[in-house]
Amino acid sequence: MPRTAIAAIGTCVPDRVVTNAELTRLMDTSEEWIVQRTGIHQRRWVAEGQGNSDLALAAARQALERAGWKASDLEAIVYATLSTDHMFPGDGCFLNAKLGVPGVPALDIRNQCSGFLYGLSVADAWIRSGQYRRILLVGSEVHSTGLDVSTRGRDVAVIFGDGAGAALLEATDDPARGVLSTHLHADGRFARELWTDAPGSFYHPRLQPRMLEDTSIFPKMEGQKVFKHAITKMPDVVRAALEKNGLVAADIKVLIPHQANLRISEMVQRALGLRDDQVFNNIQKYGNTTAASIPLCLEEAVRERGVQRGDLVALAAFGAGFTWASALLRW
Ligand code: UT7
User: Regarding beta strands 3-12 and 163-172, do their DSSP bridges make them parallel or antiparallel, or are they unpaired?
Assistant: First the structure.
């Protein structure tokens, strides 16, 4: 049975850097609060006219160039995002058109911060089953156009940023490379602890003027509850992955935790007993980019930590749903 290897990763973040100082001019917050509670120094916001699928396209093109592939080599697109350009169809179809690959299937995944790993799990199953051999997996997010950037929404607004990461997945017969296992979870009892209520087809009509006034169009989060679950579920799901493969934490070359909050990453690191050089974070520069955070971070980690063929890479995520997930792979 073939395995799934990452042939290349590409990334794209918008040019516009939004510092904490800039946010203090929009809402009652401070550089000190944001850095101490989250570790974030800056994030990127898109300019008008630049959409989610544009970021994804740039990331995908970079990955294709790095791998020496043409868009026509792709057999499937898997696109993880919670912030599609339009209500429907999903951004997978818009990306398909922008890449110029009519006929190539496009699957949209909406599992928020765990979206990239849910997508990896599906793509891995397709490759193992022999259905496809070359898949584009994207995590792309535009949060900035949907945030309440007043003091009312400050707990959420300071955290999120825009960006995209694209991984090219290919079938390999090399037993020393590829995805070892993926582990997915959800607990919908917590669906309203981190969510955006409206617009929604539950309402008649789905978009109403009152939704602008009562802020139900903006993301809401029970921050402390999310935090507490994240710092237990992420280590648990990494341990489960290690156990399944007969490995231990010391075997990990680098862990990429979903970039939700630097304090969460540090607590996950401690819970797993990992050294600083075994965990990579870049939330300081990009904030929380939900589905894009793992590929954005993985791409940098591979370059900066000198990840070599065969090194063990661990990926872990936790987010809205609640959903959480992990993956282990040999680079
Ligand atoms: O991607 C996965 C999903 N997201 C996460 O994993 C995020 C998980 N949660 C968190 O990262 C943290 O809970 C936050 C960073 C969101 C908040 O940090 P916290 O230490 O849990 O703060 P808190 O919510 O308990 O709020 C403490 C205080 C409150 O004021 P009072 O009631 O103590 O007077 C908030 O109103 O901080 C206030 N506050 C702020 N102050 C300045 C909340 N947001 C801000 C802000 N600037 N941006």
Answer: antiparallel
> Is residue 139 domain-shared with residue 203, that is, in the same domain?
no
CB of 223 shorter than 6 A to ligand 1: yes
Catalytic residue flag (residue 288): yes
pLDDT tens track of the chain, all 331 residues? 999 999 999 999 999 999 999 999 999 999 999 999 999 999 999 999 999 999 999 999 999 999 999 999 999 999 999 999 999 999 999 999 999 999 999 999 999 999 999 999 999 999 999 999 999 999 999 999 999 999 999 999 999 999 999 999 999 999 999 999 999 999 999 999 999 999 999 999 999 999 999 999 999 999 999 999 999 999 999 999 999 999 999 999 999 999 999 999 999 999 999 999 999 999 999 999 999 999 999 999 999 999 999 999 999 999 999 999 999 999 9
Is the domain of 80 the same as that of 199?
no
Task: Give the residue whose CA is nearest to atom 9 of ligand 1.
Answer: 223
Torsion of Cα atoms, 270 then 276 then 281 then 282, to 10°: 140
Q: Which of 52, 111, 113, 143 is catalytic?
A: 113
Confirm if 231 and 271 have CB atoms less than 8 A apart. yes
Q: Determine the structural domain holding residue 297 and report its residue range.
A: 178-330
Question: What sign does the CA torsion over 285, 149, 22, 156 have?
Answer: negative
Ligand 1 neighbour 194 (Cβ under 6 A): yes
Q: How many domains does the chain have?
A: 2
Which token pair is 254? 């680098």
Determine whether the shortest distance from the Cβ of 69 to ligand 1 is under 6 A.
no
User: What's the predicted TM-score (pTM) here?
Assistant: 0.97
| Same-domain status, 193 and 293 | yes
- Please tell me the distance between residue 223's alpha carbon and the centre of ligand 1 in angstroms: 6
